[in-house]
Structure formats: C-alpha cells, structure tokens
Design brief:
The structure holds two protein chains of two kinds. Chain A contains 15 helices and two strands. Chain A has a two-stranded antiparallel sheet. In chain A, 72% of the residues lie in helices and 1% in strands. Chain A is mainly alpha-helical. Chain B folds into two domains: 76 residues, no CATH class; 210 residues, MetI-like (MetI-like fold, Orthogonal Bundle), CATH 1.10.3720. In chain B, 72% of the residues lie in helices and 0% in strands. The longest helix of chain B has 32 residues.
Chain lengths: 312, 301
C-alpha cells in the first residue's frame, strides 16, 4: 500500500513538473487568457462558492455573517411554505415549458429548413423576435386584462362562452397557465438559432446515401440522419432551455405582480429577490440560490446523458 | 466558346435542380401544403403580439379605451411617441442623460467583452496548454445556471470594490459573460491552423497573429457577440446596482413611465415599441452572420 502510494505521488509529481514546464513555454497563452480569467473567476466562479458559504450563515449585511449550520436549509424546506409554492411553480413551469419550448424550437427550425432562402430568413426573424423583444410580453397583460376591456374576455363574452369577465391575472387558477403561454411564446431563443444554423450544416450527401439505403419518409430521415448529426446543437439548445426554464421570474413578475395574489405565481427566483433585495437576509437568500444552482446543474447533467442516446 | 460554357452551365443547373427534386422522395404534396399552412398559422401567432404592440402604440388615446376593444388602429397617429418625448423632456433627469447612460453602458460593455473574450477564446481554441480543457469545461458549466444564482454575492463583491452605483457595476461583469467566449472559441476552432502557422513562419508573434489574422477572419462571430451583449445590456434595468437617478438606464426610465397608470397608457404602448425595436433591428441586419456563427455552437462531449 505504502509503495503504491509513493509511486502514485512520484507519478503525480512528474506530471505536475511536465505541466509546469509546458505552462512556462506557453506563458503567452496565460497572458491572453488572464483578463477574461480574472473577471470570470471574480464574477462567476467565486460568487457560486461564496453563495454556498453564505448559505450556512446568518448574514444581514450590517452584522458580519455568523455560522448557523444547516438551519437555513432546514427552515427553507420545513417551515417556508411560500418557498415550497415557489419550488412547485418553478418545477411546473420548467417541466411544461422547458421540453415543449425545446421541441418547438427544434421542430420549427427543422420545418423552415427546407424553405427557400429568403423565406427562411424572414421566418427566423418572426420566430426569434419574441425572445429579444425587450419587455414586449407586457402586452399580454392587455390581452388578459381582468375587465371587459381585455381582448380575451371581450372575445369570450361575445362568443357567449362566459358571461362575466375572468380575472385572468389575479385569479390563482389562471396565473400559471397564462405565464406558461407567454414563456412558450418567447421560447424560440438562442437554441433555436443554433438549430437553424446546425440544420443548414448537415452534409447533404448523407441524405443521398440515406435514400439509397431505403429511408422512406421525412420522419425516418429525421431520426436516422438529421438528429445524430445535430447532437452537439441539441446539447447546446438543451442547456439554453433548461437555464431559461428554471430562471423564470421576469414574466411572472410583470404579468402577475410581485408579490402575486396568494403567492400563486411565486418562483424560486422571485423568492430569492424577496429575501435578498427586500429583506436583506443574504444568508437565507444564498441558501435559495444554492438550491437553484444544484437543481439546474443536476437537471443539465441528466438531460445531457439522455441526449447522448439520440439516434443510437 | 462562351455559348458552349453557358450551355454547359445550363445543363448543370438542370442537373442540380433534379438533384434537389430527388432530395425529397416520398414527400407528399398534401403534406407539404399542410406544413406550409401550419407554418403560416404559427408565424402569425408568434408575430401577433408584436404587431399588436406596434398598432397599440399608433392608437390615439380614445381608441385604446374603446369598447369593444379593436385590434388595429383606425386612425393611426404618432401622438403617443411625441407625448413620450414631451414627458421625457420634462423629467428631472433629461432624456439625453438616460440615453447616454444606456449607450455608454452598452457600448463600453460590448467592446470590452468582445476584446477580452476573443483574446481568451483565441488561446483556448488554438493552443494546447495545461488547464485549457479544464477551464473550457468550467465555462460550459457556468452556462448551465442563470445569472440570478450569483446575483447576491455579486452585489457583495461590487460593494466591496466600491462599484455600486457606478456604471462599472454593470459593465465589468458583462465583460466576462461565458456565452460570448463559448461561441467565439467554437467558431475560432473552425479556422484553419495553417493560417496561423504560416503567419508564425513569417515571424509574427502571438499579438500580431491575433490582431492581424485571427480577428479579421472571425467577423461573423464578432457580430454574434455584439448582438448578444447589446441585447443583454440594452435591456438591463440596472435597478439593483444603480440607485442614483442620473445614472439609471433608458429602459428603466421608460418603464417608470409605463407603470404610470391609466393616464400613461398611450405612452406606455409607445415605450414597448421603442425598447423592442433596437435589438430586433440589429438582429435583422446581422442575421446571416449570426447564423454562420451559431453553426459551430454545438456542445461536444
């Protein structure tokens, strides 16, 4: 055992020495990377570590943080009913809009792929515009206004389906479905662009070969040729849509208010805002952030291992 | 001679067309038509809220409150926009100041991001050095969670640095956005290494290779980084990091007007259009370059 360990360490030492020598030779590379590296560590890596650290403390900015163990997590899960609502809502939104938005992004990218060039570029603009249109989603609060001036109410009353206007954005029953609708409307984002570009890059000769081998229809073509070729883009798109699906807060805050009636549209991120920037309970907010972080990373890993099997 | 070549080209054209025809065997015309109709319907649904937002901004006030509500403006006017400018002109902090704040943040943030991220991407893509793969892995992991996770520690860090309530609180973190570096690196990997080797043989050092050869060859990626960065910064309300009214951004000021209640409904509608028009226009003009960059955006194992 001892021998084995000493061998292991000499090997490690040797490797480290080799790496050090290489690094010395490549000093230029580090100089190039340094500005980005420093900022990246400062604003992306370090904050994650800091947030994990603060999540074990009580910290309100005025007093120095003091260690309280797992108490933040315990009270989050056992006592904070509103957080549980937030988790439930976030998962509902993520589970429904995440996969649906992802499939929509791929489906439309695939469908417009065979269109003539200029129609395709117009279609890309039309489909992509909602996700970059600033806070254009606020317009949905005009559609779904609670009184008879709202378009949806007016239309439904005209058709005789309802006889009194529905308070779409105040009635907890309707809040989440409407938010999901809006999020779906905005879900053709960066991943969609990646799909469009990736589909253009699929080698045409593979299709020819596929027809020789007896591929009958576009669905077979999709599964056996297109999807395996698109795997890297599919991964990228998945990362984008998972990140978006769990980070929902802008839409719910703009449409349903902050806080919303009965907290019916609360998500993990709005809960984080509430504790971080309204109540300044930074330790508690960091515990929320850490939970969100873990959920996102785990979900990404799970989806990636799932996507590796596509087309095999 | 020219006739011959023309004929030949013509023949080739016909041949190519046949190839394209052949590319879609067993594809029914009915299916194609159904597809087109489906796409047109969906495109209409996607575009409708945006079209509606524009038409709303063109409605005079009385039409905005008409019952039953109408979708399109009957007597379109630009009143809402001119009212908006009047309101902005009367505000305590002038309109030009808000505009300057946003333009300054967007411009400096984007330029810095482009330079710093390209420098990093260049060495990550084209050189082997210890820590290369590990660092890139960390970047991809960092794209897997939203910025909200790091917001609170970021606030504390910026506070320690004394940057809260300055432009730098928005600009400097924007430099390090992982998405830009990721896309740039993936795109640079597509550059032929021989290009760099040749320059090196001619005696160029890394800086010269970077500035003289690599950067001019990745212009499509520039546009992509620029549009993603501009999108983020233009829409940045910056209300958590900046308190002083005179340093707040245009979008923030506009949204204050928007939340001004019933009396500001018309101006609010105009605000929506003003805010969304900039990113959409930039995208329309740079679409082909962006798609070219996104073609290499895949995440490999």
């Amino acid at each position: 055992m001892k021998e084995y360990l000493s061998k292991y360490f000499t090997l490690r030492k040797h490797n480290a020495q080799v790496a050090w020598k290489k690094a010395k030779n490549r000093k230029m590379c580090y100089i190039f990377l340094a500005p980005y590296l420093i900022l990246f560590i400062m604003f992306f890596v370090f904050p994650v570590v800091a947030s994990i650290y603060f999540s074990f403390t009580y910290y309100n900015i005025l007093e120095p943080p003091h260690y309280i163990g797992l108490r933040n997590y315990i009270s989050l899960i056992l006592q904070d009913d509103i957080f549980l609502i937030g988790i439930k809502n976030t998962f509902m939104i993520a589970v429904i809009t995440g996969p649906l938005g992802y499939i929509m992004a791929f489906l439309f990218a695939w469908l417009i792929n065979e269109l003539p060039r200029w129609i395709r570029s117009v279609a890309v603009i039309v489909f992509y515009a909602p996700s970059i249109a600033g806070n254009c989603y606020v317009i949905f609060s005009v559609f779904f206004r609670g009184d008879a001036y709202g378009y949806v109410n007016a239309a439904l009353i005209n058709l005789g389906i309802i006889d009194a206007p529905i308070l779409w954005l105040i009635n907890p029953q309707w809040m989440l479905p409407i938010c999901m609708l809006v999020i779906l409307w905005m879900s053709l984002g960066t991943g969609f662009l990646s799909f469009v570009a990736g589909l253009q890059g699929v080698d045409k000769s593979q299709f020819e070969a596929g027809y020789m081998d007896g591929i009958k229809n576009r669905w077979q073509e999709l599964w056996y040729i297109t999807l395996p070729n698109m795997k890297p883009m599919l991964m990228f798109g998945a990362v984008m849509s998972i990140t978006q699906a769990f980070g929902v807060c802008d839409v719910t805050m703009a449409l349903c208010g902050y806080p919303s009636t009965d907290y019916a549209a609360r998500t993990i991120v709005t809960h984080l805002f509430d504790y971080g920037f309204s109540r300044f309970e930074m330790g508690y907010a960091c515990a929320i952030a850490t939970i969100l972080f873990l959920i996102m990373i785990l979900c990404n890993k799970a989806i990636q291992s799932l996507l590796r099997r596509v087309g095999t | 001679m020219s006739k011959m070549s023309k004929k030949k080209a013509n023949e080739e054209e016909v041949y190519k067309k046949k190839l394209i025809r052949r590319r879609k065997p067993n594809r029914s015309i009915a299916g194609d038509i159904a597809l087109y109709i489906f796409l047109i319907l969906v495109a209409f649904v996607m575009a409708f809220p945006i079209i509606f937002a524009v038409s709303n901004a063109l409605k005079p006030l009385d039409e905005l409150f008409k019952f039953p509500p109408r979708i399109f403006a009957q007597h379109p006017t630009m009143d809402n926009f001119s009212d908006l400018f009047v309101t902005m002109g009367k505000s305590w902090v002038t309109f030009t100041r808000y505009l300057f704040n946003t333009v300054f943040i967007t411009f400096v943030g984007t330029a810095g991001h482009l330079i710093i991220a390209s420098m990093g991407a260049f060495v990550l893509a084209k050189y082997e050095f210890p820590g290369n793969a590990l660092f890139f892995k960390i970047i991809t992991v960092s794209m897997m969670f939203t910025g909200y996770v790091t917001q609170i520690p970021n606030y504390l860090i910026l506070n320690k640095l004394g940057w809260i309530d300055t432009y730098w609180a928005i600009i400097i973190p924007a430099f390090a956005s992982p998405m830009g570096l990721f896309l740039m690196k993936q795109f640079m990997e597509g550059l032929p290494t021989s290009l760099i080797e040749a320059a090196k043989i001619d005696g160029a050092n890394e800086w010269k290779v970077f500035a003289g050869i690599v950067m001019p060859n990745v212009k499509p990626a520039w546009m992509t980084l620029i549009i993603f960065s501009v999108q983020g910064l233009w829409n940045n309300k910056a209300s958590t990091y900046i308190y002083s009214e005179e340093r707040k951004t245009l979008v923030y000021a506009l949204q204050q007007i928007q939340s001004g209640g019933i009396a500001r409904t018309g101006q609010g509608a105009a605000v929506l259009v003003v805010v969304m028009v900039v990113p959409i226009l930039i995208f329309i003009f740079s679409e082909s370059q962006i798609l070219e960059t996104m073609a290499s955006s895949g995440l490999k194992d």
